[in-house]
Amino acid sequence: MPSNKTVSDAPITQFINCQILKDHKLHREDLWVRDGRILDPEKLFFDEQGYADRRVDCGGDILAPGFIDVQINGGYGVDFSQPSGDTGAGVAFVARKVLEHGVTSFCPTLVTSPPHVYHQVLPEVKVQNGGVHGAGVLGVHLEGPFISLEKKGAHPERFIRTFGGPGGPGGPGGVDHLLEVYGCLDNVAMVTLAPELAGSQSVVEELCHRGIRVSLGHSVANLSQAEEAVQQGASFITHLFNAMLPFHHRDPGIVGLLTSDQIPADRLVYYGMIADGIHTNPAALRIAHRAHPTGLVLVTDAITAMGLPPGRHTLGQQVIEIQGLHAYVAGTTTLSGSIATMDMCVRHFKHASGCSVPEALEAASLHPAQLLGISSRKGSLQYGSDADLVLLDDQLNVKATFISGEEVWRK
Asked: Is 60 exceeded by the pLDDT of residue 166?
């Protein structure tokens, strides 16, 4: 019997024989989709007397919200921090490829670059919904250049800025200098900065006022400086443990935010983890997860070389050398992003932390959606949410990816 066309002409899809992730648990029940959104079956049955137009048999596998990557620098030969003449085409290419990893939306990330790169690239990266063409773009993540020289990691020192101008005071300050460097913030979702920089307070407040998430990273901030930034609106920590002062019992630095009692009552601090088995020891991953499980956000921090063979590649203005699973600034032992995929990170996190399957999946879906303030439509399988889905086996290998309820990739 077809669905009730008096309510909507759109066909209804019923996902059957699946374990769906809902309310932090796996449930044996069906999932219903219409117009790209998840339906409440009770309303469908009782209010509309409606039925499915087609069924998708999931074969007993796990159906979870699509993964969201808030820190990805590129992949498959595309470097988001390298002006190409057609940045949009590069972003679109990566958007298609990450569907294989269960990623249904992402934040293209730019590392520290000279102003002309931001001015050229940022207007070309548009926020857009996902579909058969690829994963959706949620906005750009600008990682730098307002970071600490001491914790620059793979970021090129010559392009690092303070809020008073290049390398020191002088010229426009604070927000004015930030706008001068970036040129445009229209499609920006997040900015990573070092909160100990002079003038950062007003910048954090202004970015948050514009609806842009502020993340703390590449920083030598002490705990009180980090807490002050959170009180001004910062809500994320960029790749926890990496490119920041190590935990010290007398001043735990940014890491101390995970258990700080100075966080506003209505605020949750989230933190990114590169769970690739290289950036963070499994014991450190377990410590972070057990201290603050609801704030953990899995990120790939993937670079151009993701999906390519070992050799020399780029990350913005730097040459990167891939040795096995490690990505180094060429000629050094400085790690520079990863070549991990999101599904690899989910599996490693599950194995290393000993967490449950729902916890591993939510760290790549619900938590990043909450961080970005889009959890009413992304990151969960609640009624009314976008039907962006990933189908996985019990070992968390991706078998198929769906956007708006339509299959966009299958193994």
From this structure: no
